[in-house]
Design goal:
Blueprint: H1 10-69
């Protein structure tokens, strides 16, 4: 919350309004970027999980083949 005392200076009022708008847009941009990063992390985590699962399945398959040969 920002207050202007009466009588107020128009230049000071415009500067305060400008700063409030810049702050608002900066917060909005930061929130959007944070959401984007969160989505990226979730996607990459899922990709890592799937890759790990494939490696485990491949190793299990290899162990079964070696075990059946021996």
């Amino acid at each position: 919350t920002d207050f202007l005392s009466k009588p107020f200076d128009p230049d000071e009022a415009l500067n305060r309004i400008k700063n409030i708008l810049i702050s608002y847009h900066s917060r909005k941009e930061l929130l959007n970027f944070n959401n984007h990063l969160e989505n990226t992390v979730q996607l990459r985590t899922q990709e890592l999980f799937e890759t790990k699962l494939k490696i485990i399945q491949h190793l299990t398959f290899e162990e079964n083949i070696v075990g059946s040969i021996l």
